[in-house]
């Protein structure tokens, strides 16, 4: 019970921080309104999916350094397919491709017993090369309705981009988490040996977790294609950003604890921080320092608060 | 007494404000997606220096980081939210940014793309002619090796449009010289250390070759030859200060530098201010043609000597101004301070 309160306290703290930052943005730029919120939500799209994928593998006790490269493969595949076929089958193919790429990552880790960080580092280069083979230079096209779907807001005051993040993550994660597989993922992440002795198919659980990560990367690749209208084979800055958001979102590196809601709110926080720094015309070289400092500061504060809570 | 002081203060403020009363009060936004590269740093400094000397610019917001097109979209949207009057950007891709650029133009924001084009209708483009850049250098190199031989082709970043444009120009020159053979093609990522290591690796194989064409990672290639004791071959680079200096100093080095000024960024800011002041050019696209400086002839050597400046960062292009466009001094671009910077 107390564990649930603690977990929710972290998320509640992040929500409060996000709210404070939004108020601050409004104070700095009084004209900041719905269009500003929409652009923050759109910017968060690829980061949110990369982070969701990373969170799943971190919870199972691993890490995937190839998320940005898998997103690039999915983005170029989507852009190439959508030039030739309708949007819906192309999306399904890309989601399947992402899942398979993730399964390959997970399969290699489990079967070869090479550490996850080494395997996925190698796969980072493999997927990067695959993306360039599919599309040597940026090109292709994205279905028009997909590009339009991430703009505006159907539900009042909720940008479509935000609704899409919530919907896609919920559809994949909520049923998964409540299933036997979800429990196995948490069990494997918190203590692999104990999970194994309790009859959890540890290897299979890990492989599927990497598969889910790959599928979230496919969503990320699709959102890149929808944002830009083309496919870009060069991976974007999503690896480090996703690790940062996972940590900031209250997922313990090492596995077994945390959820997906916290990391996704953390993504929004990191995006709004960049908006604020741009509005204030802060020197771009100082901007990255500030972003890093905020991250360390928040995690330190959070850890201190959690530890004190545990002692009581 | 207090009243007197207040009115004196008011007078003083009025006096300082007076010259500015006729100047407009523009805010300009900058967006760039490659950080820590000499050319791009010169571009940013040229933008700051030009904004500083433009009387009509009071505020400059610089979004300058390493990111992809989606990240540049984010920066552009943030600049729109900041209420800028003009956006000068170095686009990561010609087609990927249209949603933000079209929204900016809808709001009456002037858009100027420098260095590479954008396909958004209504945007102005000011750039160096990249295809001509590669063609000019490659043609000189192929002539230099006598129309036949083995060439090492060191490109930029795979999939980036400047690299693709240069590749087109390079291939155009290659078609004119059937005796030329490309023995090795690599992407330096426009990173000094990476390019140098690649040349070390290739020299270590011992495979002979007759010339090197680089996409601007040039002085470190000369270093690689000198440090590994390999005999120098003709090398083509850009007008980076370090490489231009080598062309005059390194014994036995025959080479050519093709100009590719990063200061087009300053020209972009100047163009944006002109457009805001109602002096838009007739054409939407303004191309700056490159020039080739070589050290194989006396005339070429004289040109190179005249262009040098020891105070420049060795990774910066030597051509720090764009005649007819930029108004800042060399000291101002080296200082790299924009309006509002202390």
Automatic annotation (TrEMBL), chain A:
Entry keyword set: Cell inner membrane, Cell membrane, Membrane, Transmembrane, Transmembrane helix, Transport
Main location: membrane
Superkingdom, natural source: Bacteria
Subcellular location: Cell membrane
Signal peptide, first to last residue: none
Membrane association type: Multi-pass membrane protein
Residues annotated as transmembrane: 43-60, 65-82, 88-110, 117-135, 155-176, 207-230, 236-253, 260-282, 288-307
GO MF annotation, one: transmembrane transporter activity
GO cellular component, one term: plasma membrane
Purpose: Part of the ABC transporter complex LsrABCD involved in autoinducer 2 (AI-2) import. Probably responsible for the translocation of the substrate across the membrane.
Entries under PANTHER family matching the protein: ABC TRANSPORTER PERMEASE PROTEIN YPHD-RELATED-RELATED, AUTOINDUCER 2 IMPORT SYSTEM PERMEASE PROTEIN LSRD
Assembly behavior: The complex is composed of two ATP-binding proteins (LsrA), two transmembrane proteins (LsrC and LsrD) and a solute-binding protein (LsrB).
Name used for this protein in its record: Autoinducer 2 import system permease protein LsrD
Organism name: Sulfitobacter mediterraneus
From TrEMBL, chain B:
Signal as UniProt keyword: yes
A GO-annotated cellular component: cell envelope
Top-rank lineage group of the source organism: Bacteria
Cellular localisation: Cell envelope
Keywords, ordered alphabetically: Signal
GO MF annotation terms: carbohydrate binding
Pfam families: Peripla_BP_4
Keyword RNA-binding: no
First and last residue of the signal peptide: 1-23
Residues in Periplasmic binding protein domain copies: 28-279
Family: Belongs to the bacterial solute-binding protein 2 family.
Protein name: Monosaccharide ABC transporter substrate-binding protein (CUT2 family)
Organism: Sulfitobacter mediterraneus
């Amino acid at each position: 019970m107390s564990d649930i309160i603690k977990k929710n306290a972290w998320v509640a703290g992040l929500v409060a921080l996000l709210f404070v930052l939004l108020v601050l943005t409004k104070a700095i730029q009084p004209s900041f309104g719905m269009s500003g919120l929409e652009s923050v939500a759109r910017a968060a799209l690829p980061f949110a999916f990369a982070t969701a994928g990373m969170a799943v593998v971190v919870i199972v006790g691993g890490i995937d350094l190839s998320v940005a490269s898998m997103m690039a493969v999915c983005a170029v595949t989507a852009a190439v397919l959508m030039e030739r076929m309708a949007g819906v089958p192309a999306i399904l193919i890309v989601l399947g491709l992402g899942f398979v790429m993730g399964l390959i990552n997970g399969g290699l880790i489990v079967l070869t017993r090479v550490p996850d960080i080494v395997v996925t580092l190698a796969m980072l280069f493999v997927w990067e090369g695959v993306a360039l083979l599919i599309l040597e230079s940026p090109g292709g096209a994205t279905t028009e309705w997909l590009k339009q779907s991430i703009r505006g807001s159907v539900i009042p005051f909720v940008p479509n981009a935000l609704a899409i993040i919530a919907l896609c993550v919920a559809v994949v994660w909520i049923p998964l988490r409540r299933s036997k597989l979800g429990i196995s993922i948490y069990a494997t992440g918190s203590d692999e040996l104990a999970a194994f002795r309790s009859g959890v198919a540890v290897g299979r659980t890990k492989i599927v977790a990497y598969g889910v990560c790959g599928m979230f990367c496919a969503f990320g690749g699709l959102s890149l294609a929808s944002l830009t209208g083309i496919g870009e084979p060069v991976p974007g800055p999503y690896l480090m950003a996703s690790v940062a958001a996972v940590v900031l979102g209250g997922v313990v590196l090492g596995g077994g604890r945390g959820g997906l809601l916290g990391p996704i709110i953390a993504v929004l926080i990191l995006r709004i921080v960049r908006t604020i720094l741009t509005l204030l015309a802060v020197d771009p070289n100082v901007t990255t320092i500030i972003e890093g400092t905020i991250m360390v500061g928040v995690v330190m504060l959070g850890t201190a608060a959690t530890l004190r809570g545990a002692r009581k | 007494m207090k009243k007197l002081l207040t009115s004196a203060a008011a007078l003083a403020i009025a006096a300082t404000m007076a010259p500015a009363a006729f100047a407009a009060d523009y805010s300009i936004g900058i967006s760039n997606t490659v950080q820590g590269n000499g050319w791009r740093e010169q571009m940013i400094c040229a933008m700051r220096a030009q904004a500083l000397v433009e009387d009509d610019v009071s505020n400059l917001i610089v979004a300058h980081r390493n990111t992809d097109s989606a990240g540049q979209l984010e920066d552009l949207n943030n600049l729109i939210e900041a209420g800028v009057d003009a956006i000068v950007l170095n686009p990561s891709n010609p087609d990927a940014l249209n949603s933000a650029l079209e929204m900016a133009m809808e709001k009456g924001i002037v858009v100027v793309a420098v260095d590479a084009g954008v396909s958004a209708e209504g945007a102005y483009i000011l750039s160096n002619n990249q295809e001509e850049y590669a063609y000019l250098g490659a043609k000189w190199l192929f002539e230099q090796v006598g129309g036949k031989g083995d060439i090492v082709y060191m490109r930029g970043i795979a999939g980036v449009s400047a690299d693709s444009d240069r590749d087109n120009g390079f291939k155009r020159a290659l078609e004119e010289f059937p005796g030329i053979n490309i023995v090795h093609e690599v992407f330096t990522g426009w990173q000094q250390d990476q390019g140098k290591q690649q040349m070390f690796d290739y020299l270590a194989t011992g495979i002979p070759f007759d010339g090197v064409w680089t996409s601007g990672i040039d002085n470190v290639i000369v270093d690689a030859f000198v440090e590994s004791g390999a005999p120098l071959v003709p090398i083509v680079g850009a007008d980076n200060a370090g490489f231009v200096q080598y062309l005059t100093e390194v014994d036995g080095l025959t080479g050519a530098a093709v100009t590719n000024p990063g200061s087009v960024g300053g020209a972009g800011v100047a163009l944006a201010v002109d457009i805001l002041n109602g002096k838009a050019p007739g054409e939407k696209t303004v191309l700056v043609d490159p020039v080739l400086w070589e050290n194989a002839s006396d005339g070429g050597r004289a040109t190179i000597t005249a262009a040098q400046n020891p105070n420049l960062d060795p990774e910066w292009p030597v051509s720090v101004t764009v005649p007819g466009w930029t108004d800042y001094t060399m000291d101002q671009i080296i200082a790299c301070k924009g309006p509002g910077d202390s």
